[in-house]
Every structure is written in C-alpha cells, then in structure tokens.
Design goal:
Blueprint lengths: L5 E18 L4 E14 L4 E7 L11 H16 L7 H11 L4 H19 L3 H4 L7 E3 L2 E3 L4 H13 L5 E5 L5 H15 L4 E5 L6 H13 L5 E2 L7 H10 L4 E3 L6 H10 L4 E4 L1 H4 L2 H14 L2 E4 L6 H11 L27 E3 L2 E3 L12 H7 L7 E3 L2
Parallel strand pairs: 5-6, 6-7, 7-8, 8-9, 9-10, 10-11
Antiparallel strand pairs: 1-2, 1-14, 2-3, 4-13, 12-13
Helix pairs in contact: 5-6, 6-7, 7-8, 9-11, 11-12
Length: about 375
C-alpha cells in the first residue's frame, strides 16, 4: 500500500449558534450547520475540510444531511485506498463518477490539500501557486432588516477597524422599502465605507431595471444577483444598463457556468465560492476565466466556519487581482468555534496563516460537544 494512501474518511455534522438571525431573501438563518470532513492517510497525516451551505435546501441542491450521506456512501468507496498525495487524480476520479455535489467535493478537496500541505511542510496557498498577499479585506453583511440597527452596527464595525465594506441583504421585502433602507445606510456611511447589495435572485427583470438604476444613482457600489440565475439574457440586459456593476453569484454553480456567463457578458463581477465550484483548485479555474474576460473578482462565502473560510482565503491570496475584495466573515457570525484558535481579523482584514496546510487545529473537546451525532462515524479501508 502507498504510504500516503487514504485509509478513512469521517464526516461530522456540527451545529453552531450565531450572534443574531441572518436574513436572506429565501431564508433566515438561526444558526449555522457545518459538515466537517477528516481524511486520514496511511502515513499518519490527517487533512481537515468543511462543506457548508445555507438554509438546508432553500439555497441550493445540497444540504448538510445529503453532503454527509453522499460522502459516506459514494465518495469514500471511490477514495479509500487511493493516493492522498495525488489530489488531481483523486478529484478526477470523483468527477468521472459523481456529477455535481460541488459542496461535498469542495470539502474533500480542502481536506486533501490540508493533508498534503502538512505532508510537505507548506501552507495550502503555496500548493495553489503561491500567495501574493498575506491578508484580505473583508466585507460584513448587515442583515437585521432594521435601518437604525444596521447603521449602528456599521458604525461599530468602523470603530473596531473590523470592516469598511458593507453588504445589505435585500429582496425579501417590498422593493421601495428595501431601496429606502439601502439608501439611508449609504447616506449615513458616506465615503467612509463601500455599500453593496445582495438580492439573492428575488426580483424580476422589470423591477430590477428600475431598482438597479436607483441604487447606482445613489452610490451603491455593487448589485449581486438581482434576478434569477436562469434569466441569463436578462442579466445581460441589466449588466448593460445598470449604473452600478452587476455581480453573478447563484448564476455560477460550476466552472462551466463561469465560461458561459463571460461569453455573453452577463456580469461585470464574479463571486468566487469554493463550495459552488468544487474546491480551492476549482475556484481558481473560474477566476482564470474571469480574468481572461476582463471580469472583476470578489471572494465570496457560504458563511463557512474557520476551516472553509481559511480554505477560501488560501486560494484568494494567490490571485493577481481581487478588485472587489472578499466577504470571508463567516467565523465572525458564530458565537462558538471548534478550532483551537479562530481565524485572525484585524485592521479590516483577515490574516492568512503561513503554517503547513490550512494552518489550523481542531479543538477535539468542542467538536465532540457540538457534533449533532455524538457517536463517531467513519468509513475505513478494510
């Protein structure tokens, strides 16, 4: 057997409380559920990954329960006994047999990268081509829906030097009320902060044509996924008419989507999410497509915990241009953690570790406490 052969894969569903309810157009989060993946190899190296989505099945095609089940029953038999040091071959093996399931694939790829980094004594960013920066500016989402509360929260973040980029979740309410809410916050922030909106596909094209014009004229810097991902021609029309740039998010569910959107000019900015592309290596392929087409890049999040956040960060610090910064604030939304040391945020940025692998360590006691199933479940090589 290869010294680096994969011996076991364990999946653990973890439920962590959040600092407040987090409102999206399609769902309100009361806590966050993570799927933690532990890949153990014959050489004693363990890699850790995370697959996290939002709102069960209200956001996409995968849920924590389906991710765990599919990894246990379908991914693990394909990977156990394979060379854990050959990430490319392992992921190609999965892609040949398993369609979609990008959230699950992202967690597996992250765990393999973490293991290989530990094996070689290198941070994951070096396995991905080499970092060109050590930290990333991070946006904060204002999602209470209350204008006064959101302004107070933004002022606090500026005072703490934690965030000066703010994204507002809108679309669930009446459009004129949403627009007034956003414009009031932008007026309060002035030039001290960038204000952006995420509509999560909630508008139809007729509403979006008017709303995007009003938002752009009132200083909003970016409008994320205003209409359905299926209305690509509508995205093209909006992108051509809106005074504020349109960003594709839900429209990108795989690398091929990125190519098709770039080809028709459906967005001026792409949100990069490792979970929706299938991993840190995969998201860099989407970034390459965007760069070739002259499309701006934004480091997105699925509100992952520390593992998924740092996996994204290791990929994003390798990018030549990240003009629209990132929103890797997921760990800051949690009141509890399962890491010995949480990711480090200061001076408006997330600082990316230089230690081998992802640069983190699990807190075994807290992981055991917050796991949904208190019994250990793993799939091992016979």
């Amino acid at each position: 057997m290869l010294a680096s052969a994969i011996q076991s894969i364990e999946t653990i569903i973890v439920d962590l409380p959040t600092i407040r309810p987090h409102k999206l157009a399609m769902h309100t989060m009361q806590n966050q559920t993570l799927v933690i993946i532990r890949v153990r190899c014959a050489d004693g190296i363990e890699g850790v990954g995370e697959s996290t989505t939002i709102g069960g099945l209200s956001y996409g095609n995968e849920s924590p329960d389906s991710i765990k089940t599919n990894i246990d029953r379908h991914f693990a038999p394909l990977l156990i006994g394979q060379d854990g040091a050959n990430i490319n071959a392992a992921m190609q093996r999965l892609d040949k047999v398993i369609k979609g399931n990008t959230f699950a694939k992202s967690g597996i790829e992250t765990a393999l990268l973490d293991a290989q980094g530990k094996r070689l004594g290198l941070p994951v960013s070096e396995l991905l081509g080499g970092r060109v920066r050590d930290s990333l500016p991070v946006a904060w989402t204002l999602a209470s829906g209350d204008t006064a509360k959101d302004i107070a929260e933004a002022e606090q973040m500026l005072d703490l030097r934690r965030h000066r980029i703010f994204k507002l979740k809108i679309g669930a309410g009446e459009v004129n009320r949403d627009l007034a809410h956003v414009i009031a916050i932008k007026k309060a922030m002035g030039e001290r902060a960038s204000v952006r909106v995420d509509v999560n596909q909630a508008w139809d094209e007729a509403v979006a044509l008017r709303a995007c014009r009003i938002l752009g004229e009132n200083g909003i810097d970016l409008i994320e996924q205003p209409i359905s991902r299926n209305n690509v021609s509508g995205m093209v029309r909006l992108n051509a008419s809106s005074p504020a740039p349109i960003m594709a998010d839900e429209s990108i569910e795989c690398v091929e989507d990125a190519f098709n959107l770039a080809r028709v000019g459906a967005a001026s900015i792409f949100a990069l999410k490792i979970a929706k592309n299938g991993g840190p290596r995969a998201v860099l392929r989407t970034a390459a497509i965007a760069e070739a087409a002259g499309i701006g890049l934004y480091g997105g999040t699925m509100l992952e915990g520390g593992i998924g956040t740092l996996a994204s960060a290791h990929a994003f610090v390798t990018l030549n241009k990240l003009m629209w910064d990132t929103e890797l604030f997921g760990p800051l939304l949690l009141t509890e953690d399962i890491l010995q040391e949480p990711p480090h945020y200061s001076d408006f940025e997330l600082h990316v570790p230089k230690a081998p692998g992802l640069g983190l360590n699990l807190d075994e006691e807290r992981l055991a406490y917050f796991r949904r199933d208190k019994s250990t479940v793993s799939v091992s090589h016979a």
